[in-house]
Amino acid sequence: MQIRKILPLALLALTPVFAQLAPIQGNRGVTMGHLHLIVRDVDAAKKFWTDLGGKPVKNNQLELVEFPNIYIMMRKGEPTGGSVGSTVNHVGFNVQNSAEMVAKWNAAGIKTEKGNAAGQYYITTDDGLRIEILEDKSIAKPIQFHHVHFNFAAADVTEAQAWYARSFDAVPGTRGRYKAGDIPGANLTFADVEKAQGPTKGRTLDHIGFVVNDLNFYAQKMELQGSKFDIAVRVVNDGKTKVAFLTDKWGTYIELTEGLAPQ
Questions:
Q1: How far is the C-alpha of 209 from the C-alpha of 245, rounded, in Å?
Q2: Average pLDDT, the chain
Q3: Is residue 259 within 8 Å of 242, Cβ to Cβ?
Q4: Main-chain phi, psi angles of 205, to 5 degrees
Q5: Is the pTM of this model over 0.70?
Q6: Using CB atoms within 10 A of its CB, is residue 32 exposed (0-12), middle (13-18) or buried (19+)?
Q7: Contact 200, 251 (CB under 8 A)
Q8: Cα–Cα distance between 31 and 52 in angstroms, integer?
Q9: Residue partners of 118: CB distance under 8 A and separation at least 6
């Protein structure tokens, strides 16, 4: 009996835990990690994300706002544009009760727009990030991250879906009328639009981030598949975190991290 009680604890100790992030499936898999924003006023942006339902946390020198399935990171700067018009048109969160959350947000000064579907709303931050809100009464917490909505020229959608499946193990499928890919913590939605969109780098949503267990291995795997990194693997955060950056073929700036979340 004692062995049965101790063994699961020992196994848990060997399993990496990334706080609010979805668990990585397999030793060298990937999960949704963070959104990195360029904002004009860091304090105001931090208040917005806290009022939205996030929790400020720190990993050594890294300051984050934590939601289930995602971290929000911010740096001060002048964004070249909002998310609309770029390859990442918007991001999406699920909430347990849209009406209750909207009332809370409006009281805090967050403006919301009613969508066409039941329980659907949109928010646009002061720096131009478009956020979709979808009601899902089945989720365990009041709010959690749900999706990244990409806009690609119609001719590129199938190739983009295949690239994200090959590069980040995004399981191909659909979401509504759109092609999609699922990774732990997020749905990647690949919408088709008339023409190619602008790159994300420099806009308010500068880049999206994925977390991996073994960044050196993952970077080598992607390079063997033909991907080229803008910034090779390097150590930051006083040695607590590894990062690497690349840009997909269509202009989405992507960061891969190891050791992002507070332990």
A1: 9
A2: 92
A3: yes
A4: -95, 90
A5: yes
A6: buried
A7: yes
A8: 22
A9: 135
Look up tokens 């690349």; give the residue: 246
Q: Are 74 and 39 in contact (CB under 8 A)?
A: yes
Judged against a pLDDT cut of 50, whether residue 197 lies above it is answered with: yes
The Cα–Cα gap between 161 and 27 comes to: 23
Judged against a pLDDT cut of 70, whether residue 10 lies above it is answered with no
Q: What is the SS3 assignment for 27?
A: coil
97 burial type by CB count under 10 A (0-12 exposed, 13-18 middle, 19+ buried): middle
> How many residues are recorded in the chain?
263
Scanning the structure block, which residue is given the tokens 């990334």?
18
Please write the tens of the pLDDT for every residue from 136-194. 999 999 999 999 999 999 999 999 999 999 999 999 999 999 999 999 999 999 999 99
Q: Dig out the tokens for 18 from the structure.
A: 């990334």
